[in-house]
TrEMBL record, chain B:
GO cellular component: membrane
Assigned keywords, A-Z: ATP-binding, Nucleotide-binding, Translocase, Transport
Domain of life: Bacteria
Family annotation (Gene3D superfamilies): P-loop containing nucleotide triphosphate hydrolases
One family name in Pfam for this protein: ABC_tran
GO process annotations (BP): phosphate ion transmembrane transport
Boundaries of every ABC transporter domain copy: 15-256
Name the record gives this protein: Phosphate ABC transporter ATP-binding protein
Any one GO molecular-function label of the UniProt entry: ATP hydrolysis activity
Length: 291, 267
């Protein structure tokens, strides 16, 4: 039973990472749909978020089922608690992604031309959010608490751009917001900046749960500001196979992430996976030639 | 070297073992035990078979004295008094430190006589006093409602779970300070297990309870503190690996061996 349970824990962890990857990729699509006014992509993104919701619901059920049937303790229990918590936050992030996709659809429907300055700010804010999400995933794959400690700093530019976005919006001159209707339409689209800001915050919340997984202590992002990395490392407690996996195995489940948005370690892991694939493909060609 | 996670302080402890070792003849069974058992709390001893949990439990009321050739070193005190000091009466100690075993072992007597046995030995002769003690003890053991109209029935005719609660009532009748329970639920059905666990929770505020159990769920459910014992090498003495608040032990054990044992990776 222990072997089966261990396999179930590992599968749950992989599914969590895979959903995280899906949320990240869908976020890219939602932002692209918004910036390029691509209604088709917005529709596709919205459908993708519904599929993610279903996966999240299933993962939650799997975790509660394991708790009910296996009576987990220690690192097994911490892992399941962590997965449930992150899964919940992934659902919240997915909801924000869906809101962005909806805003994109509305933008096309109402034929809103977002001022270039605001468009640029959304693009910049989204770039920062991608990095926060990429770092969050990197922390989870590598069990790296030092990345978690740095997430608040990474979130700072997101929040600054978000504030800049609203300052810019408020300073806009009347001719650019010619009538009430376009004013309201525009107001609905500018919430995208808020959704992006929230997505980054939720991702940080989710990643911070890594400290509970590895130390048993519930530490928030604000707690981590006052804790030295070495001190955090010294708080680590022993963990089982569900927690300490071969990161290379984990990396397979997030391999589609843009490499410039993830941590260095994870980037190397994904690159090595790609290299392995190329070697396999080369081997395949040789065999084909010989045949 | 044992790991301690918020273990009880000496001031809050009923039993204190210091540098305690135990031998069965030449065989060194336990070594280097430093354990404070919290007063009026439930403490669980866990560990693989043969790791010395029951041996250590039996040291607490000197039950091992009945085995020829056993000896101890270090100290073990109950409420500040060394229980291995010369002059300590083991029989009186066992009245203060009662014990429940894996297999219910009622005397082949009536339910009433089972419970009245201890008080009679202590000199209680008044019928009304004995009646009160029997009723009170059976009530505290959550058995009164089931047997109040059949007190003359043979104790051995009760179900396994009822027999175990009868044994608990028999111990409670002599008003012990400490209750030692050596796998008390391993031979009874789940419903009876729940009743015994409820009973332990009810008794704990006024009694120090120590339970040896192989059920991790039971230890996690009912105990305030948990101690993990292990004999790492066959033939070598067992020792305490980790001890502390149950929540901490079962959520984030600090020793790899505890983590591996409670999650079922060995043992």
């Amino acid at each position: 039973m222990r072997k089966l349970f261990s396999r179930q824990l590992v599968e749950a962890r992989h599914e969590m990472l895979s959903i995280y990857e899906a949320v990240d990729l869908t976020l890219h699509d939602a932002v692209t749909a918004f910036l390029t006014s691509d209604k088709k992509l917005a529709n596709k993104t919205k459908k993708a978020t519904l599929q993610i919701d279903a996966r999240c619901a299933n993962l939650e059920a799997v975790c509660y089922n394991l708790i009910a049937t296996q009576g987990p303790v220690a690192s097994d229990f911490r892992l399941l608690q962590t997965i449930i918590y992150i899964d919940f936050n992934l659902q919240r992030m997915t909801d924000k992604v869906r809101q962005i996709a909806r805003a994109a659809k509305h933008k096309v429907k109402a034929d809103i031309q977002l001022p270039a300055e605001l468009n640029d700010l959304i693009l910049r804010e989204a770039d920062c959010v991608y990095r926060v999400v990429g770092s969050s995933i990197s922390a989870l794959v590598n069990n790296d608490m030092s990345i978690v400690c740095g997430l608040s700093d990474q979130d700072e530019p997101v929040h600054q751009i978000y504030e800049e976005f609203f300052r810019t919006y408020n300073r806009m001159s009347a001719p650019e917001l010619s009538d009430d209707s376009s004013y309201d339409d525009l107001r609905r689209t500018i919430m995208v900046s808020r959704y992006l800001d929230r997505t980054a915050s939720i991702s940080i919340d989710a990643a911070c749960r890594l400290t509970f997984l590895l130390t048993g202590q519930r530490l928030t992002a604000s707690d981590l500001v006052d804790i030295d990395e070495d001190e955090l490392e010294s708080m680590r407690v022993p963990s089982g196979e569900g927690v300490v996996l071969d990161p290379k195995t984990d990396a397979q489940y997030v391999a589609k992430l843009p490499l410039d948005e993830v941590g260095e370690q994870l980037r190397h892991l994904i690159e090595s996976l790609n290299d392995d694939d190329e070697v396999d493909a080369d081997d395949g060609e040789v065999v084909a030639t010989e045949e | 070297m044992s790991v301690y996670q918020s273990a009880p302080t000496p001031e809050s402890s009923a039993i204190i073992a210091k540098d305690f070792d135990f031998w069965y003849g030449d065989f060194h069974a336990l070594t280097g035990l430093d354990v404070n058992i919290a007063r009026n709390k439930i403490t669980a001893f866990i560990g693989p078979s043969g790791c010395g949990k029951s041996t250590f439990l039996r040291c607490m009321n000197r039950m091992n004295d009945l085995i020829e050739g056993t000896h101890v070193s270090g100290s073990m005190s109950l409420d500040g008094n060394n229980i291995y000091a010369p002059g300590v009466d083991p029989v009186d100690l066992r009245r203060r430190v009662g014990m429940i075993f894996q297999q219910p072992n009622p005397f082949p007597k009536s339910i009433y006589e089972n419970v009245a046995f201890g008080p009679r030995l202590q000199g209680v002769t008044s019928k009304s006093d004995l009646d009160d003690i029997v009723e009170e003890s059976l009530k505290r053991a959550n058995l009164w409602k089931e047997v109040s109209n059949q007190l003359s029935k043979d104790g051995l005719a009760l179900s396994g779970g009822q027999q175990q609660r009868l044994c608990i009532a028999r111990v409670l009748a002599v008003q012990p300070d400490v209750l030692l329970m050596d796998e008390p639920c391993s031979a009874i059905d789940p419903t009876s297990v729940q009743k015994v666990e409820d009973l332990m929770a009810e008794l704990a505020p006024e009694m120090t309870i120590i339970i040896v159990t192989h059920s991790m769920q039971q230890a996690a459910r009912i105990s305030d503190y948990t101690a993990f014992f292990l004999q790492e090498v066959a033939g070598e003495p067992a020792t305490l690996i980790e001890y502390g608040q149950t929540d901490a032990i079962f959520t984030s054990p600090m020793d790899r061996r505890t983590e591996d044992y409670i999650t079922g990776r060995f043992g």
